[in-house]
Amino acid sequence: MANALTFLLHWAITAFALWLASLLFKGLRFRDTPSLVISALLLGLANAIVRPVLIVLTLPITFVTFGLFLLVINAVMLLLVAKLVRGFTVSGFWTALFASLFVSVVSLVLGALIGRANPGQEIELPSGAKWVLSPLRSRTA
């Protein structure tokens, strides 16, 4: 049950971030709410399935650009979703690049703020200390 709630929460955060991006960037538009919700779902799926494959295939260029090519991959994911969802349009690559960066930052911040309610995962160390894993920090107790 917790996994389903986590999935729905991430989906809602992504949809909210996409909606904010559509207000901020002229070239990013949703015709209606269903296209926004479907786009958020497909963006999550594309980031989970297609993005890792692209990262592995473009690893040499990612190293050469010190990781900046990952921004291009994020933009490509947004453009891919725009091609798949009727009612979701992105005017061009630069809009996709900046919008994907914005969506990533908003999702990260909201996920971290909402994730604070969950104290994180505790790992018991052999010395008896506990290591707490959370989205923003790790500490020993």
What do you see in this structure?
The structure is a single chain. With 141 residues, the chain is of the alpha+beta class. The protein contains five helices and five strands. The strands form two sheets. It has a three-stranded antiparallel beta sheet with strand order 3-4-5, with no helix packed on it. Strands 1-2 form a two-stranded antiparallel ribbon. A hairpin with a 5-residue loop joins strand 3 and strand 4 (130-133). Helix content is 66%, strand content 12%. Mean pLDDT is 86; it is low at 136-141. The protein is globular, with a radius of gyration of 17 Å. The chain has helices at 2-24, 33-57, 59-64, 69-84, 93-115; strands at residues 28-30, 88-90, 121-124, 130-133, 138-140. The longest helix is centred in the first third of the chain and has 25 residues, at 33-57.
